[in-house]
């Protein structure tokens, strides 16, 4: 719940609902504080601020609220304490239940407390196992029978233990309750502590990529039927492969009611690519409302104006209504809400790039400073520029070979900048070890030195693709596709360097990181004019090759074209 900003806003919303139903403001304030607002927090100071904010909000509407000793449903997580045997013995002594039931309740309490050992680290994603709501009610009654403390109880600090146990039961009730509405700006964290990382992988294996994705799934599952969950998160979950299982879960089980994709710098304090969206816990509303505000710069003021414009006029160009069931037809199920039905049909009916060639990541030597150089940093006679295929690249006398490292934004041809030490079939790179295991990543070696279509893994804006001549080893930052025929390579290179190709790639992933699996999923439709297309591709490659070799930084430089 953080410091309570969302809760304070929700307070005013509830006040409008109550007064519309005829409640007096002072009565409504008390009802809201006790029945409608719930929150959990791991940080003590944030919890204190939220508690204070809600109390003061209640005081705004009811001047006597401070004298009523109202207990809010806001809680700070605590770890289960080390509980002495004397506490359990005293519970057993004062229990009004049979020996058998008392033993059962003590076992349930012990198991529950064990789950709270790292609660301050795990927080709201804590899963309560092997406990039903009725059993929790009985545990509360059971603990409540321990009301009077002897001097010996005080000596053993049993009253303090009792207070902590009651707090844990209160937190457990909040965790087990189903809600009509849940809203959060969850933590964005993909490098977790050891305890948290183990817990997430065990309990949320399908959404373990980032903590915010865990919250999306967890909060979507604590709703009543047809309840709503609202989130503000990074929008990478909508497209990147590592969040594919999360997307599948939402599309298959929930309804994306509305989504606003914001401009990168919408929050002026920090450049964070975020989206705000609402999930309905039902499959009854597959058609959702989407706003694409990524083109509107100017901070939150402009973003707010555009949202209000779209509410008043659904014909604005950045408002979309999409049936999420159509997204299932697109490989990886990206939330590409802006695409039309013809494109969706193409993904269903046409062949993909993967049907024409193999898309692969490249070599990661790990110790780049040791194994990678710009080509002019080493002796020219110690570089082999003439390898034509993988077989020829197995053994050769030179130490260095061309290395396709991605490079600057450039279409058709170019970025022949680097070489890599691949002497004796990469002997030194393969010898690298870390913790006794191979350290370098050497995927798909059988494709090394073959001609390919290549693109930089990290892009800024549109993706630029190039023809790569035989003789290079692909790098991890220079992803490559190796084709069965040169004709397919040229045709697909021409298509993907067009606006059509750019559009299709943005459907699959509009972020700046284009993976090989996404590229391989692009649909391809061969046109009757394919010969003329390949002729133009050849011309573009040759023009760009001449341009590249006209600079002294090119290893095939002969002379300046102006001479």
- Which bin fits the share of residues in helices? 25-40%
Mean pLDDT level? 90
Number of domains: 4
Q: Note poorly predicted spans.
A: none
Largest sheet: 6 strands, mixed
Secondary structural class:
alpha+beta
From the N-terminal CA to the C-terminal CA, the straight-line distance is: 70 Å
How many runs of DSSP E, i.e. beta strands? Answer: 20
Describe the strand arrangement of the main beta sheet, using strand numbers. 3-4-6-5-7-8
**Based on the structure given, which CATH architecture of the largest domain is correct?**
Alpha-Beta Complex
Percent in strands: 15-25%
CATH topology of the largest domain: Adenine-n6-DNA-methyltransferase TaqI, Chain A, domain 2
Total of DSSP H or I helical runs spanning 4+ residues: 20
Question: What is the gyration radius calculated from CA atoms?
Answer: 31 Å
What is the name of the CATH class of the largest domain?
A: Alpha Beta
- Specify the overall morphology: elongated
Written overview of the protein:
The chain has 563 residues and is of the alpha+beta class. The chain has 4 domains: 1-76, no CATH class; 85-165, no CATH class; 179-344, 3-Layer(aba) Sandwich (Rossmann fold); 357-548, Alpha-Beta Complex (Adenine-n6-DNA-methyltransferase TaqI, Chain A, domain 2). It contains 20 helices and 20 strands. It has helices spanning 5-20, 25-36, 44-61, 85-94, 99-115, 119-122, 133-144, 151-155, 158-176, 194-203, 211-221, 244-253, 299-312, 341-349, 368-371, 423-431, 486-496, 499-508, 516-520, 530-548; strands at 38-41, 73-76, 179-184, 223-234, 255-261, 274-280, 287-292, 319-323, 351-352, 357-360, 372-374, 400-404, 418-421, 433-434, 437-438, 452-456, 466-468, 473-474, 478-483, 523-524. The strands form 6 sheets. Strands 3-4-6-5-7-8 form a 6-stranded mixed sheet, with helices on one face. Strands 10-19-16-17 form a 4-stranded antiparallel sheet. Helix 1 packs across helix 2 and helix 7 packs antiparallel against helix 9. The radius of gyration is 31 Å and the shape is elongated. The mean pLDDT is 90.
């Amino acid at each position: 719940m953080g410091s309570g900003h969302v809760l304070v806003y929700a307070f005013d919303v509830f006040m409008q609902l109550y007064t519309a139903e005829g409640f007096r403001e002072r009565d409504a304030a008390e009802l809201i504080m006790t029945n409608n607002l719930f929150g959990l927090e791991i940080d003590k100071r944030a919890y204190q601020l939220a508690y204070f904010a809600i109390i003061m909000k209640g005081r705004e509407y009811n001047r006597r609220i401070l004298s009523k000793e109202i207990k809010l449903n806001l809680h700070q997580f605590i770890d289960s304490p080390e509980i002495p045997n004397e506490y359990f013995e005293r519970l057993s002594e004062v229990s009004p239940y049979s020996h058998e039931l008392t033993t059962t309740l003590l076992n349930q309490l012990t198991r529950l407390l064990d789950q709270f050992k790292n609660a301050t680290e795990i927080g709201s994603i804590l899963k309560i196992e092997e406990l039903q709501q009725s059993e929790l009610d009985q545990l509360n009654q059971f603990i409540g029978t321990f009301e009077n403390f002897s001097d010996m109880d005080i000596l053993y600090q049993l009253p303090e233990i009792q207070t902590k146990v009651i707090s844990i039961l209160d937190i457990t009730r909040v965790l087990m309750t189903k809600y009509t509405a849940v809203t959060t700006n969850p933590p964005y964290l993909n490098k977790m502590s050891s305890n948290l990382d183990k817990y997430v992988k065990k309990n949320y294996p399908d959404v373990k990529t980032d903590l915010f994705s865990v919250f999306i799934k967890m909060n979507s599952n604590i709703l009543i039927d047809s309840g709503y969950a609202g989130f503000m998160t990074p929008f990478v979950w909508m497209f990147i492969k590592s969040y594919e299982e999360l997307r599948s879960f939402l599309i298959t089980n929930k309804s994306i009611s509305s989504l606003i994709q914001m401009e990168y710098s919408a929050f002026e304090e920090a450049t964070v690519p975020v989206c705000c969206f609402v999930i309905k816990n039902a499959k009854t509303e597959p058609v959702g409302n989407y706003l694409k505000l990524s083109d509107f710069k100017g901070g939150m003021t402009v973003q707010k104006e555009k949202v209000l414009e779209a509410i008043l006029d659904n014909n604005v160009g950045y408002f979309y209504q999409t049936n999420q069931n159509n997204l299932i037809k697109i490989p990886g199920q990206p939330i590409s809400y802006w695409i039309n039905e013809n494109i969706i049909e193409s993904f269903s009916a046409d062949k993909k790039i993967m049907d024409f060639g193999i898309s692969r990541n490249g070599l990661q030597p790990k110790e780049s400073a040791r194994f990678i150089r710009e080509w002019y940093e080493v002796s020219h006679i110690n570089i082999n520029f003439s390898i034509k295929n993988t077989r020829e690249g197995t053994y050769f006398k030179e130490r260095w070979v061309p290395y396709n490292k991605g490079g600057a934004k450039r279409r058709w041809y170019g970025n022949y900048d680097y070489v890599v030490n691949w002497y004796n079939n990469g002997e030194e790179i393969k010898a690298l070890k870390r913790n006794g295991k191979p350290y370098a990543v050497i995927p798909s070696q059988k494709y090394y030195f073959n001609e390919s279509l290549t693109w930089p893994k990290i892009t800024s804006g549109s993706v630029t693709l190039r023809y790569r001549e035989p003789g290079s080893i692909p790098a991890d930052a220079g992803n490559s596709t190796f084709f069965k025929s040169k004709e397919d390579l040229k045709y697909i290179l021409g298509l993907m360097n067009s606006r059509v190709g750019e559009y299709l790639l943005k459907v699959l992933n509009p972020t700046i990181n284009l993976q090989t699996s996404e590229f391989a999923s692009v649909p391809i439709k061969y046109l009757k004019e394919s010969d003329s297309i390949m002729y133009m591709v050849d011309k573009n490659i040759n023009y760009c090759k001449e341009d590249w070799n006209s600079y002294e930084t090119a290893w095939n430089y002969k002379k300046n074209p102006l001479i």
